[in-house]
């Protein structure tokens, strides 16, 4: 669904931010922390980083926190009391400054959490999330969104996509009803426009591989020396999964104290040696090679086989941040 194009200038953009913040919404945007730029809570427009390609972390934390309470319980004389957090109100969140790959990642995430099993914690957060993305005017050698059905001006997953035009103003493409409501409530800040000038303003991200070909090849490459070869330097640190906007594996931890306790879910990573370790001591993925294979197969074969959506949006974060210099693009193009 696309519900219209508008233009908005820089001072009005700042006003739009203030208007949304004044309504009590929790604002997340790219913000400097030391030398890095991270999605963080921000209160003022001036706190937002001015010049960034991508944040070091992904935006998934706004819908899938790194750890959260699933429920808590307490034994009383009358029985067991369960406290279910999905009964609490969820705050309205605005994700400001996501890139098209960040926004596109909510599609496979939603497929994971809202398809076979409806995960109410995710559903409620996603429902309250407004995604205001900005097209990419630049890219680097780690970007490969165009190889996984994305692009620097892709609108999938965003409510509004802004593109800074060569005139200095922004094109605002309204993608969803939520985005339309923002324009209606702030109509004095927007002017009707066409999408003219968008393409010239976008970064040029050359396609590096064909997703369908990779998916087909992976059917035959389960046993292959490539997996050990490409993962030899892997430290099993889990960084690649923690910063990936699509990775959504989690572990369940129970913290019990006497007659009460809490069940938590915490991010997990297929790079960890404990990942899928059985109680018997057997691990079906006993080394980094088989764990790396799982990572690639999950993203480029199992997820597209099941739902026609790849588990990778080509943001390149995992390759930029891997302390061992492992580059996912290097493995996929080698295939
Ligand atoms: S970030 Fe690199 S070293 Fe760490 S688990 Fe991932 S591939 Fe291995
Ligand atoms: S696997 Fe790497 S490139 Fe793909 S979405 Fe995750 S972090 Fe980005």
Word description of this protein:
It is globular and about 65 Å long. Helix content is 29%, strand content 22%. It has helices at 10-22, 100-104, 106-114, 120-127, 177-185, 198-201, 211-217, 226-231, 239-243, 288-307, 317-321, 328-334, and strands at 5-8, 26-33, 36-41, 67-76, 79-83, 93-98, 129-134, 160-164, 170-174, 191-192, 250-257, 260-267. It has one domain. The strands form two sheets. It has an eight-stranded mixed sheet. A four-stranded antiparallel sheet has the order 5-4-12-11, with no helix packed on it. With 335 residues, it is α+β, with helices and mostly antiparallel strands. It starts with a strand and ends with a helix. It binds iron/sulfur cluster (SF4) (2 copies). Residues 244-246, 299, 312-318, 328 line the site of one iron/sulfur cluster.
Mean pLDDT equals 95
Total separate domains: 1
- The backbone outline, from C-alpha atoms, is globular
* Oligomeric state of the chains present here: single chain
Given as residue ranges, the uncertain stretches (5+ residues, pLDDT < 50) are none
**Which structural class fits the helix and strand makeup?**
alpha+beta
Into which percentage range does the β-strand content fall? 15-25%
Rounded to the nearest angstrom, the distance between the terminal CA atoms is 36 Å
Bound molecules: iron/sulfur cluster
How many β-strand stretches?
12
Question: Layout of helices and strands, plus pairs?
Answer:
Elements: E1 5-8, H1 10-22, E2 26-33, E3 36-41, E4 67-76, E5 79-83, E6 93-98, H2 100-104, H3 106-114, H4 120-127, E7 129-134, E8 160-164, E9 170-174, H5 177-185, E10 191-192, H6 198-201, H7 211-217, H8 226-231, H9 239-243, E11 250-257, E12 260-267, H10 288-307, H11 317-321, H12 328-334
Parallel strand pairs: 2-6, 6-7, 7-8
Antiparallel strand pairs: 1-9, 1-10, 2-3, 4-5, 4-12, 8-9, 11-12
Helix pairs in contact: 7-10
The site of one iron/sulfur cluster (SF4) has 12 residues, from helix 9.
